[in-house]
Design goal:
Number of helices: 17
Number of strands: 18
Strand order of the largest sheet: 10-11-9-8-7-6-5-2-12
Bound molecules: iron/sulfur cluster
CATH topology of the largest domain: TIM Barrel
Strand content: 15-25%
Shape: globular
CATH architecture of the largest domain: Alpha-Beta Barrel
Length: 405
């Protein structure tokens, strides 16, 4: 079931907007969560492939944004009954906040959220925005992991994506971060950029590895609806990369990163031993996480919600944590999503648990059939009492896993 705030508003006869807050959805008791996601919606430019909510920053609303985040963090933090093992501040570009405001935001997190000892605390950074001052603010605030939006080291691919950073600034950013004392760094790379060739992708991996990151995310380019890049594709101005070429790039990634000592723990994610991203694992294991900031999405015990996605409405709202979309997942949907997400993980899902779920929540047998056919076709394998994707299955994961939802 999905409730749209717009629907509630129209049901209100066009009078004052209905103010829906998280309290209306989850009640007023305490909540048990493992992680928190904070969204900072400012960027200095809109990249052409991006469908995350962000606005080009004019700096004038940064301060009110940070003040409002403090209020929402205070409210949600007071409701948390368990310490959080992961916090992720993403965006947008969190490191675009002025240093004193970034410091205030980090301070709000520390003051209001119950952080477990050793909590993994990640901040996303655009390479252009990281200097010694920002890196010091992060360390002093308690951040212990930085995810750098590198995407590509090829000027032609960066131009295609309309990413406004210089490839050399990735290594500069990494140096600032390490010098400040943060020793857990992720680099994001995008595979399959139109016009790119295999040798360029190999070079991207080589350059990323030369920076000695602890974690690498290598996502295939997604053509999200209504982005400038997708419009170019629809108008025939660019072409998707050939499937076989993209598969060859992925195969090279698996081999290159394995040979460099990385462990693959998810279809698109690799880490040095013990450095898998805890926050991402909370998503993939369908655990509970808070969402704070415009357009942030969260999940609490089978209820998914999205915070009001427009900055001005979010700032103007008198609700604590104003929410626009709420989706109460029924058991069938939860089961399908759980199977789909856990099979993305290299460790897969325990056979007994999969059978239990399919016995309870597969009324038409379609999911069991998808699993049986996946095993028969070599896309899934049974190993150590777990069902996992095979290497071939990872290449075709989207079509296989979509049958489970
Ligand atoms: S910097 Fe990141 S969030 Fe901002 S527009 Fe580019 S991809 Fe989107």
């Amino acid at each position: 079931m999905s409730i749209e705030l717009e629907q509630l508003n129209s049901a209100n006869g066009g009078e004052d907007p209905v103010s829906l807050s998280l309290d209306d959805i989850i009640g007023s008791g305490s909540i048990s969560v493992r992680a928190a996601y904070l969204h900072v919606p400012f960027c200095f430019h809109k990249c052409h492939y991006c469908d995350f909510y962000s606005i080009v920053d004019t700096q004038d609303r940064q301060e009110v944004f940070v003040e409002r985040m403090d209020q929402d963090l205070r409210m949600l933090g007071s409701r948390c009954e368990s310490p959080l093992s992961a916090v992720f501040i993403g965006g947008g570009t969190p490191t675009l906040l002025r240093p004193e405001l970034l410091a205030r935001l980090l301070d709000s997190v520390v003051r209001h959220l119950p952080l477990a000892s050793g909590c993994e605390w990640t901040v996303e950074a655009n390479p252009e925005t990281v200097d010694d001052v920002i890196a010091d603010v992060l360390v002093e605030g308690g951040v212990n992991r930085v995810s750098v939006g590198c995407q590509s080291f090829q000027p032609s691919s960066l131009r295609m994506l309309e990413r406004h950073h210089e490839p050399r600034n990735v290594s500069r950013a990494v140096k600032h971060i390490r010098k400040a004392g943060i020793h857990s760094i992720n680099l994001d790379l995008i595979m399959g950029v139109p016009g790119s060739v295999h040798a360029e992708w190999c070079d991207d991996l080589d350059q990323a590895l030369a920076l000695d990151p602890e974690h690498l995310s290598c996502y295939g380019l997604q053509y999200e609806p209504n982005t400038p890049l997708t419009r170019k594709l629809e108008m025939g101005q660019i072409e998707r990369l050939d499937d076989e070429l993209e598969a060859a790039m992925y195969e090279h990634t698996v081999a290159r990163l394995r040979d460099s000592g990385f462990e693959q723990y998810e279809i698109s994610n690799w880490a040095r031993p013990g450095r898998a991203c805890r926050h991402n694992l909370v998503y993939w294991k369908s655990e509970n996480w808070l969402a704070i900031g415009p357009s942030a999405s969260g999940h609490l015990d089978g209820t998914r919600f999205k915070v009001t996605p427009r900055l001005s409405e979010w700032l103007a709202s008198t609700s604590s944590v104003p929410v626009v979309d709420v989706e109460h997942l029924d058991d069938l949907t939860r089961t399908g999503e759980r199977l789909m997400l856990e099979l993305r993980l290299v460790e897969g899902i325990e056979v007994g648990e999969m059978n239990r779920l399919l016995d309870l929540f597969d009324p038409d047998g379609e999911r069991r059939l998808a699993v049986t056919e996946g095993l028969r076709d070599g896309l899934l394998q049974k190993h150590d009492d777990r069902i996992k994707l095979t290497h071939a299955g990872r290449l075709l994961a989207d079509s296989l896993l979509s049958r489970l939802v």
